[in-house]
Amino acid sequence: MNSSIDSAMSSAMDYKIAEQVFQEAVNDLHTLRDFIRWTACSFEKANLSFGHGTDNAWDEAVTLILDSLKMPNTTDSSLFDCRLTGTEKQQIVDNIEQRVNQRKPLAYITSRAWFAGHEFYVDERVLVPRSPIAELIENKFAPWLLHTPETILDLCTGGGCIAIACAMAYPDAQVDGSDLSEDALAVAQLNKEKFGLDNRCGFIQSNLFDNLHGKKYDLIISNPPYVDAVDMAMLPDEYHFEPEIGLASGQDGLDITRKILQQAAEHLTDTGILIVEVGNSAPALEEAFPDFPFTWIDFERGGDGVFMLEKMQLLSS
Q1: pTM given for the model
Q2: Could you tell me how far CA 174 lies from the centroid of its own chain?
Q3: How far apart are CA 282 and CA 227, in angstroms?
Q4: For residue 207, what are the contacts with CB-CB under 8 A and spacing of at least 6?
């Protein structure tokens, strides 16, 4: 690494890259490999929070730089020794500036996020998808769902990732996604059009079940807001780019989940099941609802705080 670039860097928590350092990078770094190495080092020193698509500085650097050049993540590493043009270098450093100096999440810089094996459009109107529910969709909800669902609801759908992934997994099912936010539903609509699901996937503006007019579903899934007040105050800067309406749910993180538990049974078919993610609010949920027989789901790829309840369990609790 160029010594003048090194000397201008700091490992402090409020680390930022100075304009002079960016200019030196444009002048002194030449290949993809140079930029990946320098960017990964910068990300480490900046003490960034990962979790919006990658979990480490190197993968984040590779993803950001390849996307800056409109190159796929599957690009052969032998191409990393190719030299870059001045315009390409400038695009890369512009994106690095957003990531390091602004702490903007990677997915909002690239406008892309992957969920359940599919690429979705995202922007700051919606959360970046990262739910372990993706693994459930890929596994067709085994062993919890005993039959192929004909109707599915994604409650608090945001950008529509869960709803659309379910529609892709179950090509004969009718899938609805509901959300209170008009902005989020506009993004969901863009994703629905991208996947060509006009006839099988519908999005409804609704405060939870209010505008569903008695519809019943074989499967209701929800990744609702569930961050409690203490955790909201401690979130890294990256998470404050996301809409608060998609994260915060009262003092204990359960304001929305309480309503879902109260209302879900009347919107489930007789053999229907409810799957909800509550993340770190799981202990508070068990304390608040000691009589509910929550089945907590384990994930091979990591993640927790997702429960399953059958309709009859909801009715009898």
Answers
A1: 0.91
A2: 23
A3: 11
A4: 180
CA–CA distance, 309 with 317 (Å, rounded to integer):
10
Q: Can you tell me which residue has the tokens 């992957």?
A: 114
Domain ranges, ordered by start, for the chain: 3-109, 116-316
First to last CA, the chain: 62
Q: What angle do CA 24, 26, 32 make, to 5 degrees?
A: 125
d(CA 145, CA 160): 21
What sign for the dihedral angle of Cα 167, 170, 175, 178? Answer: negative
Nearest to 43 by CA among 65, 66, 76: 65
Alpha carbon 302 to chain centroid, angstroms: 14
Residues of the chain falling short of pLDDT 70: 1-14
CATH architecture of 116-316: 3-Layer(aba) Sandwich (3.40)
What six digits make up the tokens of 221? 């899934």
How many CA atoms lie within 13 Å of 166's alpha carbon, on the beta-carbon side? 30
